[in-house]
Amino acid sequence: MLGYILRRLALMVPTIFGIMLITFAIIQFAPGGPVERVLAQLQGQQEGSLNRVTGGQGDLGGVSRSGSENAKYRGAQGLDPAFIKKLEAQFGFDKPAPERFAKMLWDYARFDFGRSYFRDVSVLQLIKEKLPVSISLGLWMTLISYAISIPLGIRKAVSDGSRFDVWTSAVVIIGYAIPSFLFGILLIILFAGGSFVQIFPIRGLTSENFESLSLWGKAVDYAWHLALPLAALVLGAFATSTLLTKNSFLDEIRKQYVLTARMKGLTQRGVLYGHVFRNAMLIVIAGFPGAFITAFFTGSLLIETIFSLDGLGLLSFTSIVGRDYPVVFATLYIFSLLGLAVNLVSDLIYTWIDPRIDFSAKAA
């Protein structure tokens, strides 16, 4: 097993390299980089000043509108080419793309992510500031959804076709069909002062007086702020994992070894948790890494926006829109590492639940 783990860790290196290389190559051809963004802002300010002076009649004769030095940037007309070169050097675009990519990989290998282009703070510090929100949403959503869906899915599988199975299936399907952001908006309307009552807050992870509260008060305040966002996130996640659990257990219950165990006189509970559970839970565990990463990053983007929670999902989105490349690449690098690590942990849990699975033998 140790050899298998080492091989998986070694494979993470080319995987991360490929992800970063493809993303870096795409970024090179994407229009509207950070230099163009700054130039467009400066040009907009310049044009606004000219319009105020000329009364909206156009250029002043003293401002040049062309130049081969800066023709590659839209919005660079009339600006000093030396200033543009200085701006390129500030963002690191004065070096060839391969050299910039090699430097980025060397820095990221040492977890040196540099500084944000448009925020006066290091990228690592920026990520640390946003991390509590994303951890809170991702971790609690995953734990709550699995705590609900696994027992419910087992109960539905055991009572397949019963009245309980039918009406819970209706609830699960409705929950799956409702987008989490739409349900979040409904919760705000009903419980956060939208149109009815105002019970829950809709901004931040904690209250302003959080530090002055007692330990119990802090726990209550933390749960109070997370109640609505988690309810919106859990709805779709719990529906998916419930149906997955039910179908997995149904498939195992109908197999021959279950019938043999019952004929030997084992109780329903003994058969279910002594034989079926171990096999049926494998497919549920297989979906855990994807569920966790989705909840931790992409799945919480709209929820963070709706409930004004400043987490990594919102940070990544705004950084992509604002062309803040150090933040974009750093978050991509961290989430790629996280995803690969969680997949490895998932495989190790496989072997813990079912010792018959031996990944090291298959790899050999």
From TrEMBL:
Query: Any keyword DNA-binding?
Result: no
Which compartments is it annotated to reside in?
A: Cell membrane
Entry-linked Gene3D superfamilies? MetI-like (1.10.3720.10)
| Bilayer disposition of the protein | Multi-pass membrane protein
- List, for all copies, the residue spans of the domain called ABC transmembrane type-1: 131-346
- List where the protein spans the membrane: 9-30, 133-154, 166-192, 222-245, 282-307, 327-353
**A Pfam family hit:** BPD_transp_1
Q: Which UniProt keywords apply?
A: Cell membrane, Membrane, Transmembrane, Transmembrane helix, Transport
Q: Which CDD domains does the UniProt entry name for this protein? A: TM_PBP2 (cd06261)
Origin: domain of life: Bacteria
Into which family does the record put it? Belongs to the binding-protein-dependent transport system permease family.
How is this protein named in the record? Answer: Inner membrane ABC transporter permease protein YejB
Protein species of origin:
Methylorubrum suomiense
- Gene that produces this protein: yejB
